[in-house]
Amino acid sequence: MFALPGFAGLFLALVSVAVVAAEPHSSGETHHHPAMHSAKSVKTALAVGVTLDQDGRLWLARVVDQHLLVSWSEDSGSSFSEPAVVTPEPENISIDGENRPKIEVARDGSVLVTWTQVLPQKYSGNVRFSRSIDSGRTFSKPITLNDDGRVTSHRFDSLAIDGDGRVIVAWLDARDRDAAREKGEEYRGVSLYTTQSFNNGESFGRNRRIQEHTCECCRTALIWSREGPIVLLRNIFGANTRDFALINLDKGGIRRVNRDEWQVDACPHNGGSLATDRRGQLHLVWFTNGPADQGLFYKRIDGNWESKPKPIGNADAQANHASVVADGETVILTWREFDGNAYSAKMMYSNDSGESWSEPMRLMESDGATDYPIPLIDNRKVLIVWNTAKEGLRILPIERVTARYSG
Hints:
Elements: E1 2-3, E2 10-14, E3 31-33, E4 49-52, E5 58-64, E6 67-73, E7 84-85, E8 102-105, E9 111-118, E10 125-132, E11 143-144, E12 154-161, E13 167-173, H1 175-182, E14 190-197, E15 208-214, E16 221-225, E17 228-237, E18 241-248, E19 254-256, E20 273-276, E21 282-289, E22 294-302, E23 305-306, E24 310-312, E25 320-327, E26 330-338, E27 343-350, E28 361-366, E29 374-377, E30 381-388, E31 392-402
Antiparallel strand pairs: 1-2, 2-31, 3-31, 4-5, 5-6, 6-7, 8-9, 9-10, 10-11, 12-13, 13-14, 14-15, 16-17, 17-18, 18-19, 20-21, 21-22, 22-23, 22-24, 25-26, 26-27, 27-28, 29-30, 30-31
């Protein structure tokens, strides 16, 4: 164990790892799960969904052989429960890093899962939902949330809950584009649609269109803030400028959060990530390749005030696909880099709500195919989850310690 110095109050100590472990397979570095490796008879996806419940349990949603499975761990990933099958009938489920299964656990113990079902027609899919009311032992029959009946693109779903029964699912939807083209009209991008439940997913209301002309191929990020549910997405501004925007799903309105002026007639496949802290600030990270800026960036927003964008990672090492989480005044950023030989999971942290930051740290590396690192945080722990083809699922606990810093 070593301490990460430089911040007052809460600080982080990496457990049993020194920046990069010399032997990636050593038992002291991370928890590995060889059972999740690909095998000849079982195809296991690298993209997984994870969350922590109110008791600190780690929940895992993964796809094996076209079945969505959910399991949980009480020891930060050292061992998992027997998986529960969410999809008894095989489904072709989207399992890339931008479009992974989502999982949340409500205060009453209900386990909620969403995913994108890939249809045979090109770029088409359905947003699907299931829930468990017996602590993840069994799941309800999956339902399709998009209600238009079209065989078209409904993808890149995101899921958020308020903990008291309200559930919102948002996704990118091509129904408006298709309808316009059927009339011979032009339509830029797709639209953002939502549906919501007020009874922990027992039933959902009709679909609601939130925003037209959004980028069609970048993940959405959805959180519950003090101001209600807020989504971060790559929007299309003007003719074809694909910068990011925040939308409050209750209050409406759209707020542009970067002006990188990235105009691209292609799919960036690079969505952003969003979190909120104790102060009510928003923390966001995104990737851009516009003329104004290129690479990964972070900023925080407090009301009408916004910080300047902060560059993250090494652009020469393809720093990409960042995620941000926050609890109290601790904020964690993770991302992936590639040095030409191996991928690495990188991290930075702040203990003062993003006002100052640690230096970047390399946590793990792998020379095979990998998912993007996913950070999790609650008032007890920080976990970095990284699924790799070579080493399997890797879960790095990072201890949270209360201490005074006098340096």
